[in-house]
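A reminder before we start the practical. When you read a complex entry, don't treat the lines as separate problems. The point of joint prediction is that each chain is placed relative to the others, so the output describes one connected object in space. Small molecules and nucleic acid strands, if listed, are placed in the same frame. In the example below there are two entries. Take a minute to note the order of the lines before looking further.
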Amino acid sequence: MVFSSLSFLFCFLPIFLALYFGASEEWKNRCLLLGSLIFYAYGVREQPLYFLLLLMSIGVNHYVGLRIGNSEKHFWEKLWLCIGLVYNFSILLYFKINRIPPLGISFYTFQISSYLIDVYYWGKGRMEESVIELGTYLCMFPQLIAGPIVTYSTVAPQLRERKHSLDDIEEGLRDFTIGLGLKVLIANRVGGLWGQVNTIGIASISTPMAWMGLLAYTIQIYCDFYGYSLMAKGLGRLMGFHLPDNFNYPYLSVTMSEFWRRWHMTLGKWFREYIYIPLGGNRGGKLKTIRNLFLVWLLTGIWHGIGWNFVLWAMVIFLLIAVERLGLGAFFQKYREVGHIYMCCCIPMTWLLFAVEDLSQLKLYFAKLFPFTAGVEAAVYQADYLKYGHMYGLPLLAGLLFCTDLPRRCYEKMKHSPVSALLLVVVFWACVYCMYQGMDDPFLYFNF
Amino acid sequence: MYKYPYTILLALSLFVASIMYVGNGITNFVERVVAAQLSSGDGSETEEAETGKPTEPVSEAAEEPEGTETLESEEESDISESEAEIAALDPGNEAAASESESETVTSDSEAEASVSDPEASVSDPEVPFTLDDALFVGDSRIVGLFEYADLGQAEYFADRGMSVYKIMGARLTMPDGEKHSLEEVLSSKAYGKVYVMLGVNELGYDLERTAEKYQDLLNFIEIWQPGAKIILMANMHVSEEKSASDSVYNNERINQLNGYLQALLTEDHQYYLDINELFDDETGSLASECTGDGIHLKGQYFIQWADWLRENEI
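Here is the predicted structure of the whole assembly.
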């Protein structure tokens, strides 16, 4: 059950919110835990084992956390931490290798592991006695299946005590609606164009179509993920949580390093705090810094999926970041226009490595993008870009606009006028209409 | 209060929407009860109820979230108009159909063989086979065929999402740059062959009713193109993966529909062509390397299809 579905919006959410706001303070967390478990159980209803896996993760990590926190000797702390981490990551790795990871496992594994590491470093103060609180942290449905990745230390105080106010509800609903709009009205529509590229087959697309498809994918992946993170943040806010931002207009960056500080920020923060800095960060000289960066990016690649294209993707980004560290980054910071052009080339290219899993298909796609590099013969409908440009032009342009911070700046200016509220109501119902028409599913959007 | 304009507006709109939703449900329920009473009460009304009834499951099916086409009332009236037209134009239609029934048996059993069987083919051996005098009627698969393969002078009346339910009301851009209806296209000139491939967008509907609509279309083409050979093309299978995961777009239903279509052939200048022999894998599904989405052919395979059409002379 994704947030952008009618069953979530009109069935799960209203019932849950009614129960949640009807519950007394001490029952609110339990209500959230129960609701989240139902949310997850529904999501994995075809594989009940995955539900068990989540429950076990809570149980095992709660127990291991207690053992680490209560150990007198350093040796035992270390041993229990190892047991906990091996348990978490071996399951994650097993499913990543088999390419059928259970819903949200990449996210909750990272979250719960951060909890164990925190308890190990900071001691009893970070330990959670109550299995309910720990469970609520791990599976609260706004961030369970697609992040943001929240560390336990940031949520723990809010779990124990938080305020519910109409201000929060207003803000939460606004964020949720904006996120829903990005997902349904832009990402899913534009995603249809990328779907067309795959339907036609890379061998049979024209060069302009190849560029348009890549642009569509670049917009889709951003609006989809950003929209979902924003919905998560909004849902959290409804219940008084202040979840961290996950995106900060990454497409406006001038270097790759900056891009990855502004894209999926909570994942970057996790890697920085729990891998990069423990390894020594950038304090051990240039060579060690490069080694640490390499390891972080190798792991980031694996986190996204196991496959040669992900390794390639991560290594290209590592190389770019390493080169930027050696001085190129400073140049782009100084001449920002050049930096923007550099990013306009790099971002779509790295996403292409991400999107096309088969290496021979990837080669073919590059040959389509740059037809001078290799002879490409196959049936090509030369006017395909006109046809699909006509069909998808509007969402593409809107998507491009929403990659900048312009819409947000306008919105902030008129936020306090009722016009913005009216606009958001229109967005909300437009989304509902699209979902009802089946237009939210990129596959269903085009008929046969 | 005015501090929370969005919360209030959203709540209000949700309230209004839920009232409309409930009200709509009640109206529908009342209408259904009234209709049931009418049809059971009066004999003369029964006929009307019967002709009206088959549309009901159709619109219900369209509301399913399977992405099936929603029939708009406008198109519905268009279809019934053209239905009336068929009836008016060809009163002897049924007689003609029953007359040729004796031939049905042979043409049915030979339907598959007829393609390569020179005896069954009426074509003049003197004239080389060409697709230049052909009209293709269909959905996105025919559009793709014309986009990716070279079919010479052949023309097509096809569009994404086209179905036998919509085709009578549809107006599509033809080579002259103008929008035309199927009737206008068929009456504009005499085609040598009319190829038809429709059916995948209809899978959400009742198959028998789809077959009836198909029959109407077939009759309609017969009227306007009495000299043309009519070739019904079997609906292409979907991939094994798609078939297994979809309760509507699966090969079982496609085969069922194809069976109905094959049974529609009654005249000796009507043929049945089964493309699936070309693209099927060993499980009887569309081979996975030929398709990106499980339903459509990838661009390069349309060429094979066109070549295959030329090989299978009619």
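Discuss with your neighbour: DSSP finds 20 helices and no strands in chain A. What might explain this?
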